[in-house]
């Protein structure tokens, strides 16, 4: 049975939501929210987009470093939970700037009113 990349992406996002917040030990930036997962057609890479509640660049960088440090453990935990595929893709975490951009536009619109 073959899983399509879209179904695999949603499965990875669902499973990673709890794994990431358990494995990342630094809680100075709070909860990590996974916004989107994109899997390549050959299932060798999965790009995971995430956000945190802070707009501070120092805290965003701190979250990136913490996630990168726990990436191997996160991938191993994901392999334990997803057992119906042959290969677990390499995980690439990227900060999703859409929320910060939306907040910036919202502030500009409020100042215009």
Features:
single chain; 113 residues; alpha+beta; GMP Synthetase, Chain A, domain 3; three-stranded mixed β-sheet; 18% strand; globular
Secondary structure: elements and pairs:
Blueprint: H1 5-23, E1 33-39, E2 45-51, H2 57-69, H3 71-81, E3 90-95, H4 98-112
Parallel strand pairs: 2-3
Antiparallel strand pairs: 1-2
Give a quick rundown of the structure.
With 113 residues, this protein is of the alpha+beta class. 51% of the residues lie in helices and 18% in strands.
Question: Which secondary-structure class do the elements indicate?
Answer: alpha+beta
Bulk shape: globular
Query: What is the H level of CATH, i.e. the homologous superfamily?
Result: K homology (KH) domain
Low-confidence stretches: none
Output the CATH class name.
Answer: Alpha Beta
Proportion of residues in β-strands: 15-25%
Give the strand tally. Answer: 3
Largest sheet: 3 strands, mixed
- Return the domain count: 1
String of helices and strands: HEEHHEH
Cα radius of gyration in angstroms: 16 Å
Q: Tell me which CATH architecture applies here.
A: 2-Layer Sandwich
* Amino- and carboxy-terminal Cα gap: 56 Å
CATH-derived topology: GMP Synthetase, Chain A, domain 3
Strand order of the largest sheet: 1-2-3
């Amino acid at each position: 049975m073959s899983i399509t990349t879209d179904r695999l992406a949603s499965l990875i996002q669902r499973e990673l939501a709890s794994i990431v917040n358990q494995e990342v030990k630094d809680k100075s930036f709070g909860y990590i929210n996974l916004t989107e997962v994109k899997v390549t057609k050959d299932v060798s890479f999965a790009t995971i987009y995430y956000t945190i509640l802070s707009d501070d660049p120092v805290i965003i960088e701190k979250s990136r470093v913490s996630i990168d440090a726990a990436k191997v453990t996160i991938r191993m935990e994901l392999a334990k939970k997803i057992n119906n595929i042959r290969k677990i893709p390499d995980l690439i975490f990227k900060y999703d700037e859409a929320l910060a951009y939306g907040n910036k536009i919202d502030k500009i619109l409020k100042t215009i009113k």
